[in-house]
Amino acid sequence: MKETGAIAGASVAHSRATVDEIESAGGDGVRATVSDLLARDGVEEAFALQTCNRSEAFVVTDRTVDGTDALASFAPEVRGGAVRRLDHEESLEHLMRVASGLESLVLGEDQIIGQLREAYEESKSAGGIGPVLKDAVTKALHVGERARNETSINEGVVSLGSAAVRLAATEIDLTGGSAVVVGAGEMGTLAARTLDDTAVSEIVVANRTVPNAEFVASEIDTPAEAVPLADLPAIVPDADLVISATGSSEPVIEPRHVADAGRLVCVDIAQPRDVDPAVADREGLSLYDIDALEDVTRRTRESREAEAREVEAIIDEELDRILRAYKRKRADDAISAMYAGADRVKAREVDRALSKLESQGDLTEAQRETVEDMADALVGQLLAAPTSSLRDAAGEDDWETIRTALRLFNPEFDAPPETPGGESTGEGSAPDLDGPPESIAEELDD
């Protein structure tokens, strides 16, 4: 019998890990991570989430030990204390907290919803999404939407881009200044929009694809210019603030770019890093990365504690709902398999009993129904107590009782065996010395 699988997870996130450790855990991307996990023993489903704040992986296996083993080598170069291991219930709750923004560096950030959806689609494209993870991630997204619609968790500073601007404002006076936003993706766009609400006089958007930079520049009211990344050596020295958020695998801002700069603040919110750490050696230059934004976001976090408690109440409600459904499903799977096995035995024995009775004289339709009703009643009464016990066990998270019951009742003991070619022989399995008799009717005749 195939049980409903359980989720196991592993998380490397900003609360425990450094930027470098998160980057290391990310590997070669979501699809590569999912494909690698699916190749491991016992893994039926896999999902990965990678953002600038976290690198996480989740698998579904029938046995808990298989999930633990499959994730044992996740983030192999990251110190043990930076990796959080999650069981089934913890994984479900964690995904809801992530989608709600409770696990984000900036409490309540909105972009995590889009990142979670994108990770889901990528994992699905890699063949990693099945019924268990589909329910888990869909529920998490639903909770994330509820959190934002029913509370004010996302009011105020809700992105790394806006946090970067807030941090820069503590270092320099942005009034009349020039800001460069490197990257025209979601993070860069949010940074540009936040800068648009400040007193900067000019915003330059640099991107590998210039039309994308032009689109971002057109979205803001502050005078803005779109340039290619190749122009960075010319525009960075004249800037007061640089916020970088590209998806480049290599640094896009190097020491040579800031050699002629005056007072300059660089905030690197990219993962992997956009700014070579060596630029911090330049006198008059302040370099901040994601880790440094913690101080900026702490004030927002404190102001949203009441909203966070409301979100946690939503999570408790939704977690209880999905866990009840999951437990019912696991119990129902076991019960269905038990009844399927019993029904096969019943059908076989009723046919044999009717055949023997027919040989002793014609049977009326009413007599046939009586025999069949008796067989149905026997199956129902014999399995009533185990059914109740299995449902109670599922409600108490007692999966060992479910497995033990399946071994004892062995619902597939009489399933037709397969030939070496994979086809059924059409005959029942031969009993072992401790197994049930070939025919209960035959046993009664002896």
Automatic annotation (TrEMBL):
Kindly list the residues the record flags as site (Important for activity).
H94
Q: Which residues form the active site?
A: C52 (nucleophile)
Q: Supply the CDD domains for this chain.
A: NAD_bind_Glutamyl_tRNA_reduct
Q: What domain notes does the record hold?
A: Possesses an unusual extended V-shaped dimeric structure with each monomer consisting of three distinct domains arranged along a curved 'spinal' alpha-helix. The N-terminal catalytic domain specifically recognizes the glutamate moiety of the substrate. The second domain is the NADPH-binding domain, and the third C-terminal domain is responsible for dimerization.
Quaternary structure and partners: Homodimer.
Q: Which NCBIfam families match?
A: hemA (TIGR01035)
Q: Which family does it belong to?
A: Belongs to the glutamyl-tRNA reductase family.
Query: What's the protein here called?
Result: Glutamyl-tRNA reductase
Protein species of origin: Halorubrum rutilum
